[in-house]
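Input (structure):
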């Protein structure tokens, strides 16, 4: 004959077993919920990684476009400033400055001065 545990009876043992079973079931449900949450978090992490890669590509493309635009703008501005520079060269030569003095003041070579003057003479001759 089995002895009852000290201070308890069969009903108490049955309640304890039921409590342990309920606790195990609750633990199993909790673990499944944690696993499902972990899977969802992993999926979200992968999605974020993919979006981050796409953003990096977009930023690189934007930076490349900005550089191209800056280059084109600088090129356009330099064309305008060269035109002004060439007009100044023609004006200085017409005022009687030597080609050496014009080259020195404008920061260009004498060959460039000669070319600008020749082009201006050709332009005047054709108009």
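Output (sequence):
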């Amino acid at each position: 004959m089995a002895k009852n545990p000290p201070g308890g009876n069969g009903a108490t043992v049955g309640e304890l077993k039921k409590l342990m079973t309920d606790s195990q079931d609750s633990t199993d449900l909790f673990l499944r919920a944690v696993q499902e949450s972990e899977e969802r978090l992993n999926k979200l992490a992968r999605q974020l990684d993919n979006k981050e890669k796409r953003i990096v590509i977009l930023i690189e493309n934007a930076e490349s476009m900005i550089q191209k635009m800056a280059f084109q703008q600088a090129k356009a501005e330099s064309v305008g400033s060269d035109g002004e520079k060439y007009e100044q060269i023609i004006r200085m030569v017409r005022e009687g400055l030597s080609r050496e003095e014009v080259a020195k003041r404008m920061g260009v070579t004498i060959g460039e001065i000669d070319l600008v003057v020749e082009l201006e003479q050709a332009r005047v001759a054709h108009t």
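Notes: The longest helix spans residues 10-94. Residues 10-125 form one domain.
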